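ok trying this again, last paste got cut off
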Amino acid sequence: MKINLKTTAQSLFTAIFFAFTLISCSNNQAKENAEKLNTSIKTKVDTTQQKPADAKTILARREVPVLCYHQIRNALASDSKRAGDDIISPDKFRDHIKMLADSGYHTVLPDQLYNYLVFGAKLPEKPIMITFDDTDMDQFTVGNATLKKYGFKGVYFIMTVSIGRKGRINYMTKENIKQLSDEGNTIASHTYDHKNFAHFTDEDWKSQIDEPTKKLEEITGKKVEYFAYPYGVFKASNLHKLKEHGFKAAFILSTARDENYPLYTIRRIIDPGRYSAKNLYYSINKSFNKTKS
């Protein structure tokens, strides 16, 4: 059998060339990943070394729109008039989220909002935060599914007493909550059983705050650093305790922010089921297109 030495040498050279190319590409990718990691670490370190903004500065920053949702279902004849504000039909919810996407909004999460308020970090153009209270299953089946369609992320304020419960209203399971967290959404606290924050006793700081925080952290494997007040009600004299119990910020509804603790009274507005998408758009601009409370 005749061996073509020239062809064999060319084949060997080609194989060696591709091997070196692959090694080089691999090294370049590893270098690029390392540079990204270093940049991320550097940014984090730089942020922590900055002087945090004071309350006056935080209040002066333009507010970021924050929407609040509760039940995403069709209203029933038995629902009270008050409950109507907390209920939005699945079709209307989808229309409203589509409007936000079509209008150029980009969702942000609490860490981004915190860094903007405290350190002046940049946010995407037309930022908005979408939040859900009370752990209802429809927030997972309809809410999360709709947000994912547009590449949006949400914040889920969990009332831990409800986890896994079924009845007239079904609630999210531990597995649902873990999935939301794993997909990049934020899991946050909404007390154990929706007790009014203004009525907290000393014991409630353990049962309504610390124990729910621990449970959510066990489910997600991540720190829980944000809180939403049941009914949107807060008590000014207790706001400093939220920081002592590990929270970086907390969310009210549409009342005025506290001038001493603006991070713990971040405003939200409810998107009522009676609103059209156009109504919501006007409401967002009317409520948040200003620089101070």
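PB: full thing came through this time. Confidence is low (pLDDT under 50) at residues 5-9, 12-45.
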